[in-house]
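Moderator note: this is an archived Q&A kept for reference. The question asked for a predicted structure of one protein chain; the sequence and the answer are reproduced below.
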Amino acid sequence: MDKFGEERQKDLIIGRNAVAELIKSGREIDTLFIAKGEKNGTVGMLAGKCRDMGAVIKEVDRKKLDFMCGRANHQGVAAVCAVHSYSTVEEILDYAAQKGEAPFIVACDGIEDPHNLGAIIRTAEAAGVHGIIIPKRRSASLNYTVGKTSAGALEYMRVARVPNMAAALDGLKKQGLWIYGADMDGEDAKSADLSSAAVLVIGSEGSGISRIVREKCDYIISIKMKGKINSLNASVAGGILMYEFAYKR
């Protein structure tokens, strides 16, 4: 199954008039998909309005869009609504302050599988994480699958979507947070000091943390492996590390 297949169809708004009405309604639009070659005219106007509202605009092959829409008459455009409103990084920090706790944030650097992002959100809520940061590009968004996989946790978790993850981490460092990157070559998390205000960076399923984001990390931490495999699923590894932080805070 293509990653834009059946699961995407459940939260797609299809066609020019439907998308135009969606814009008028004021609902938060997560992503607008437009067929390649449809940048002008009505589709271009809709794309401009969605971009102004903070949505991600993605050009896709027309056959891809046909498949995503279940062969419905999409007229070159389809939108995905966020199943939950995005927060800001400032709102996450304010929430931690209201609770009288040192901020604990999880940054997902390129988690593109919505099941993994949903699972991370679910564990984060249970582990006392104050909020999650995802990038606008190279990331799953708050779509139907993420909401379903989170098993309700998304309703309680603040998720901020930022245009530049490295810049967001720089901003958090200036506010006194330490940045911890998860990587198999890092220091054993059990021996690390994880008690301060912190950001845990979880990398993508395939390539891990990007180079530029890794450069922003103050520490690289890992999970000691006892078996014959040397890596874990991103959401599983993230869950183990979140609880290492939770125990030491």
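Archived answer notes: Confidence is low (pLDDT under 50) at residues 1-8.
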